[in-house]
Write a structure and sequence with these properties.
Layout: H1 5-11, E1 18-21, E2 25-29, E3 37-43, H2 58-74, E4 82-85, H3 89-92, E5 101-105
Antiparallel strand pairs: 1-2, 2-3, 3-5, 4-5
Bound molecules: guanosine-5'-monophosphate and zinc ion.
Amino acid sequence: MADCIFCKIAEGGIPSKKIYEDDEMTAFYDAFPQAPVHFLVIPRKHIRNIMEIDAENSPLLGRLLVKAQELSKELGCEEKGARFVVNCKEHGGQTVDHLHIHVLGGRPLGWPPG
Ligand code: 5GP
Ligand code: ZN
């Protein structure tokens, strides 16, 4: 999608610190990290949010999650764990309207969210 920053990151039009990419997804470090490990995993396809996941594209979401946990292990989160977050729309705190999984780790995280 033309004016979507995450589409542009996936296409390489906006620079990012990439961790992984293949033909259907890319993972890159968050520009404003909230934990020692904070990266995002996104589909290349412009899916606006998790409410657009249906039976047809749910296998893609599964692959994004598997890659998110694999990368979390590679980045040192296997022993102590991490948080896997998908914000959705206004009340969910979503600020970029392109589906993304946050992975946060490297320190204890509070709960519940504010
Ligand atoms: P949301 O609030 O939509 O769940 O998360 C969007 C995330 O994208 C935020 O954590 C924000 O820091 C990150 N972000 C926004 N713009 C950019 C950017 O241009 N590059 C990178 N690497 N991260 C970004
Ligand atoms: Zn997009």
